[in-house]
């Protein structure tokens, strides 16, 4: 059953007592021809899973940093099929690192769910996280995604009551993405104690790994959150580097690799004992 | 015809629903629960009705436009005078209802998005009256285009936050309002200005606006002893149209026409007519007809009227289009402008540019229906806010 690349990756991490490091970048940012190189750089920096953002004109759950990333990518018309080509190219030299597409529903709707799922799988995508797909609407989507072997990652939030956590955990596969705070991506007020409490609550409902994102920007916050979750997602902090170096994209692979490596070191410093399960 | 939409999950056939990030799902459930509890509560309804009567000035008149009727030669033209409401448009019906909900939910802060500024003014107005903090998001382009309304909102004590992302218009203001809501969800009530957004908004905004159609049913019985033969309303998000149409849906002999903004023509890229020239997709929390490219990116829109300048439409309109119950048509910028001048000169009523689209279509419909028939046009707002736009088009500088 758990034969997916994501399941295998989390299984190995769990066995080794390590935490998953999950970087996010927006495909096509700052320009489409650097994305595949950045994905490989993230792997060199210690990425366990890559979340690759599909840019959208109206990213209503994202803060200014990722909004601007979308705008940069869309200046080049970066579209869904082009992004799947990027994943296919990445796969030619990396058969192991799971890739999750993260984005909004409308680009998928316009291309058609069935066509998207088939092409995504063929390109080597492992999972999808559709930000605006609430579990209530998911029955129209999940069977098709699953039929093509795609894991469906869902968000959980501080506002999710127990019944929703249970319903979402039942439909999700791969991992669960806990949004650490009420807000948009890139917000800055992370409260580790409340994250710890909510992650513990989520674990009472599911055996799926729980990754935490929103508000993780440096080694200290990664270490703190890594101490209470199975993985950390870091997005805006990386995208801010892309923004800073958008005119010098040739410097980006090394900079992102180094930035991620610092987070890797912080997470690994937790040691196997931090796996308090 | 039995009509009982939306269903329990907020769907109008394949349209509507709740497509938002997880953080907002529980607040939406709370809002829905509160609304379902209050919508038939006599005390809540009495409070709403009293506000509509004493603060808004309802019922708004149903006015026979005899000179227009004479000029156009055909069906009688009757105008539903939402332009006479306090703040000058139908928008206040909805903000009063939602502000009462906010009060019942104990929220001290309301936020709103606005395009032309009418909904922003209506929100700021009710916030002032109830002593609520009010923040209005408005595209930076629209802040420039609609400076009188920006000043009105400020006078009323609201904070207007210009939105610089995306196309800097209404859709971006809505994105920013959603971001505010997700961040301040504990103390903030989001007052959506139209029948779009995630469930339960399309339902509750419709219900608050349906007072328009209910009054028309009573008034048409009084004035001509029957129902009208046709209804005409402009459609941006579609709240004035659904408010007029909804009570008539079961009256199958009443034809209904929703008029979208045709801009420079629906065969050009410069329009705001998703029902006429768009396709189903997902935007701002619901599935509905939208204007998007093949990659799913939302397209920029154009209309002379800022209030219709939106790439989506309320999901109930999408359903009413597919079911054939309502005919959706469009009027161009030029047709709307001509109608604006014609109504102003023939009847002494300066209409909003939004409502002028409905007038423009009624002009085509009246001779087609012929004498002895009656058309009710929703005059959804007055045109005071638009005189700067009109002056600019005519090369006149107002100071």
Say what oligomer this is.
heterodimer
**Strands of chain B, count:** 14
- Largest interface: chains, residues each: A-B, 44 and 41 residues
Helix content of chain B: 40-55%
Overall pLDDT of chain B: 96
Strand content of chain A: 5-15%
Distance between the termini of chain A: 22 Å
Low-confidence runs of chain B: none
Q: Give the count of helical stretches of chain B.
A: 16
Looking across the biggest beta sheet of chain B, what order are the strands in?
3-4-14-9-10-13
Extended strand count of chain A: 9
Which percent band covers the strand fraction of chain B? Answer: 15-25%
What's the shape of chain B?
globular
Shape of chain A, please?
globular
| Biggest sheet character of chain B | 6 strands, mixed
Q: Could you tell me the radius of gyration of chain A in angstroms? A: 17 Å
Order of helices and strands of chain A: HEHEHHEHHEHEEHEHEHEHH
Rg of chain B (CA only): 19 Å
Topology record:
The complex is a heterodimer of chains A (277) and B (399).
Chain A: H1 5-16, E1 20-26, H2 35-44, E2 50-53, H3 64-75, H4 80-93, E3 99-103, H5 105-111, H6 113-123, E4 127-130, H7 142-147, E5 151-152, E6 154-156, H8 162-171, E7 176-179, H9 192-203, E8 210-213, H10 219-226, E9 231-234, H11 236-244, H12 252-268
Parallel strand pairs in A: 1-2, 1-9, 2-3, 3-4, 4-5, 6-7, 7-8, 8-9
Chain B: E1 11-12, E2 15-19, H1 25-38, H2 42-56, E3 62-64, H3 66-72, E4 76-81, H4 91-104, E5 109-114, H5 118-130, E6 133-139, H6 140-145, H7 147-155, E7 159-163, H8 170-183, E8 188-190, H9 201-209, H10 211-224, E9 230-234, H11 239-245, E10 255-263, H12 274-277, E11 279-283, E12 285-290, H13 315-323, E13 327-332, H14 333-347, H15 353-369, E14 374-379, H16 387-393
Parallel strand pairs in B: 4-14, 5-6, 5-8, 6-7, 9-10, 9-14, 10-13
Antiparallel strand pairs in B: 1-2, 2-12, 3-4, 11-12
């Amino acid at each position: 059953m758990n034969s997916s690349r994501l399941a295998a990756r989390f299984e190995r991490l769990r066995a080794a007592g390590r935490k998953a490091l999950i970087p996010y970048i927006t495909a096509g940012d700052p320009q489409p021809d650097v994305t595949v190189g950045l994905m490989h750089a993230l792997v060199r920096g210690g990425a366990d899973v890559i979340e690759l953002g599909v840019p959208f004109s109206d990213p209503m759950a994202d803060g200014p940093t990722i909004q601007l990333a979308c705008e940069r990518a869309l200046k080049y018309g970066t579209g869904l099929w082009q992004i799947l080509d990027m994943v296919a190219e990445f796969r030619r030299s990396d058969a192991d690192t799971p890739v999750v597409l993260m984005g909004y529903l409308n680009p998928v709707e316009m291309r058609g769910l069935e066509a998207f799922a088939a092409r995504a799988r063929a390109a080597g995508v492992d999972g999808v996280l559709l930000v605006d797909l609430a579990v209530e609407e998911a029955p129209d989507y999940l069977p098709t995604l699953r039929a093509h072997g795609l894991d469906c990652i869902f968000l959980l939030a501080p506002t999710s009551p127990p019944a929703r956590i249970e319903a979402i955990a039942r439909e999700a596969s791969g991992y669960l993405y806990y949004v650490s705070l009420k807000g948009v991506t890139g917000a800055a007020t992370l409260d580790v104690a409340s994250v710890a409490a909510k992650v513990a609550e989520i674990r009472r409902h599911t055996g799926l790994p729980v990754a935490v994102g929103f508000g993780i920007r440096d080694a200290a916050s990664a270490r703190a959150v890594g101490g209470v979750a199975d993985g950390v997602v870091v997005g805006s902090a990386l995208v801010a580097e892309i923004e800073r170096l958008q005119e010098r994209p040739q410097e980006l692979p090394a900079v992102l690799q180094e930035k991620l490596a610092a987070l890797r070191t912080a997470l690994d410093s937790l040691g196997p004992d931090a796996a308090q399960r | 015809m039995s009509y009982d939409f939306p269903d329990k999950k907020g769907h109008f056939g394949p349209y509507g629903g709740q497509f938002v990030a997880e953080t907002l799902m529980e607040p939406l459930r709370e809002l829905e629960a509160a609304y379902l509890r209050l919508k038939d509560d006599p005390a809540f309804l009495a409070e709403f009705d009293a506000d509509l009567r004493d603060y808004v000035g309802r019922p708004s008149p149903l006015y026979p436009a005899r000179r227009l009727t004479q000029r156009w030669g055909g069906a009688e033209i009757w105008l539903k005078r939402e332009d006479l409401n306090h703040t000058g448009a139908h928008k206040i019906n909805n903000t009063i209802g939602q502000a009462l909900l906010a009060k019942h939910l104990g929220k001290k802060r309301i936020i709103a998005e606005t395009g032309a500024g009418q909904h922003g003014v209506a929100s700021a107005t009710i916030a002032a009256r109830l002593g609520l903090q009010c923040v209005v998001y408005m595209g930076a382009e629209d802040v420039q285009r609609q400076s009188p309304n920006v000043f009105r909102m400020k006078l009323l004590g609201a904070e207007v936050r210009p939105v610089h992302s995306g196309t800097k218009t209404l859709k971006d203001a809505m994105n920013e309002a959603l971001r505010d809501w997700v961040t301040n969800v504990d103390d903030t009530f989001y007052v959506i200005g139209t029948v779009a957004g995630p469930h339960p908004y399309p339902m509750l905004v419709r219900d608050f606006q349906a007072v328009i159609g209910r009054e028309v049913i009573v008034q048409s019985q009084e004035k001509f002893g029957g129902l009208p033969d046709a209804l005409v309303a402009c459609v941006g998000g579609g709240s004035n149209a659904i408010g007029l149409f909804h009570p008539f849906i079961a009256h199958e002999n009443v034809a209904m026409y929703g008029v979208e903004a045709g801009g420079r023509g629906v065969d050009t890229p410069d329009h705001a007519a998703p029902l006429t020239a768009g396709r189903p997709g997902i935007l701002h929390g619901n599935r509905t007809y939208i204007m998007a490219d093949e990659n799913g990116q939302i397209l920029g829109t154009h209309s002379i009227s800022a209030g219709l300048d939106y790439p989506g439409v309320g999901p109930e309109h999408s359903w009413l289009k597919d079911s054939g119950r309502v005919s959706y048509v469009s009027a161009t910028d030029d047709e709307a402008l001509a109608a604006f001048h014609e109504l102003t000169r023939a009847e002494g009523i300066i209409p909003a540019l939004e409502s002028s689209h409905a007038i423009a279509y009624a002009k085509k419909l009246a001779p087609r229906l012929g004498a002895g028939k009656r058309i009710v046009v929703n005059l959804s707002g007055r045109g005071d806010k638009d005189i700067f736009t009109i002056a600019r088009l005519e090369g006149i500088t107002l100071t």
